Amino acid sequence: HATKKTMADHLRKYEALFTLTPQRMRMIVEAFKEALELGLEKPSQVVPMIPTFVFGWPTGKETGDFIAVDLGGTNLRVCLVTLQGDGKFEITQSKYRLTEEQKQDDGQKLFDFCAECLRTFIDTNSSEPDGVLTPGEILPLGFTFSYPCTQERIDHGVLIRWTKGFGSPNTEGRDVAAMFNESIEKYQLPVKLTALINDTTGTLIASHYVNPRTKIACIFGTGCNAAYMEHVRDSDKIKSMGITDDVDMAINCEWGAFDSFVHEHLPRTKYDIIVDESSNKPAEQSFEKLISGRYLGEILRLVICELVDEGVLFLGQNTYKIEKPYVIDTAFLSLMESDPTDELLMIIGIFNHFFALETTLAERQFFRALAKLIGRRAARLSACGIAAIVSKMGYLDEGCSVGADGSLYNKYPGFADRIHEGLQDIFGEKGRNIVTHHAEDGSGVGSAIIAAMTKIRK
Ligand code: ADP
């Protein structure tokens, strides 16, 4: 008769599955670096390294009023940004939540919704007495559209494929700037779309505007991605587009795609494989699926469900609520990790309230430890991506700042510390030279600065 395993025994198994050693991390960094280089060399690689047509850093002298529309994975943000020209800005913004239906609805309808929200925003902000917009004025609009697009110029972009759970038909393969322009005309909005950018590119430019030590930007939200400034001379792909090789251009890495299809380099557990295979885009965005907010809760849920099936957890209780995919939000992992009480009262509350389940203290300690393993792995993998860019660009000795944004980075306790710890595991002491910081309002402000930079170039 085998002795019954304790929750601590179970935890050891998951520790082994979810822990990344420094050695393993260094191997991932090497493979990652190769993937970045390949993407700069030739078109259509796994990590596409998309040229953004944002040339060089802002001077900090950009000024004026701009509208920014940011279609993220979860929210639509509309902002009015006033650049004051000395690394300072003012921002007024509204947020509109997207429904799951809207994410799958016809593409033109999605852009119509963006235009409708913009209409509301403009009307609200032009009405006296506290309106900030002048009626009759046409404002330049920066459109932050954070899905991989190929661009031939700054105000144009063909959607390669949807990510982050979007699936709107009639959009992939089409110019999304033209589609949005159609909606802008339909709603007769007093704006002119001048720049189509990715949130990472926006964050890169905005972070540099405020802190010139910034060389890289990352987003850790519904999805996960990075951008940095590249020398055109070091990219055969960009040179072959006829761009002079004495300039720099921001690159949207779309690094969430690292290791897609081949699955050679990342340590995927069977839970990660289930997440992948049951997603609307199997085999794609492999790196993102181990890291981003959209998936971490689901990974935890799959481990819990395995233990339910094995008769370890919730014996005699009805578990139907927790058996539904994606019912555990990544925000729950944050809450579990930050529960300050010995009894873990927050975790009692979550399981009771959302899933109608009773938990023992040993189970709650296990859930918290599991959240920590999954959250820590995500941060350490993120460190691998950052390290790959740092190492490729030779930023280690001099050091640099990494502008970061997204709910995972901003709200998950210890996420930034774990990235920094990971960078030291990869690079040793010198890893301390690479520091991440929160980029406030990055994508909106960045989009305004880029619209301003475009205006100056023209
Ligand atoms: P987006 O990337 O869609 O623009 P966010 O940066 O807010 O927007 O990211 C949303 C993602 O962050 C969701 O997947 C959500 O699960 C996750 N999230 C929201 N709140 C938290 C939190 N407190 N801790 C960790 N993750 C969170």
Automatic annotation (TrEMBL):
Catalysis: reaction(s): a D-hexose + ATP = a D-hexose 6-phosphate + ADP + H(+); D-fructose + ATP = D-fructose 6-phosphate + ADP + H(+)
Domain Hexokinase C-terminal: 215-453
All residue ranges annotated as the Hexokinase N-terminal domain in the record: 11-209
CDD domains for this protein: ASKHA_NBD_HK1-2_fungi (cd24087)
PROSITE patterns: HEXOKINASE_1, HEXOKINASE_2
EC number: 2.7.1.-
Involved pathway(s): Carbohydrate degradation; glycolysis; D-glyceraldehyde 3-phosphate and glycerone phosphate from D-glucose: step 1/4; Carbohydrate metabolism; hexose metabolism
Matches recorded under InterPro entries: ATPase_NBD, Hexokinase, Hexokinase_BS, Hexokinase_C, Hexokinase_N
Source superkingdom: Eukaryota
Family that this chain belongs to: Belongs to the hexokinase family.
Annotated protein name in UniProt: Phosphotransferase
Species whose genome carries this gene: Pleurotus ostreatus (Oyster mushroom)
Lineage: Eukaryota, Fungi, Dikarya, Basidiomycota, Agaricomycotina
Chain's gene name: HXK1
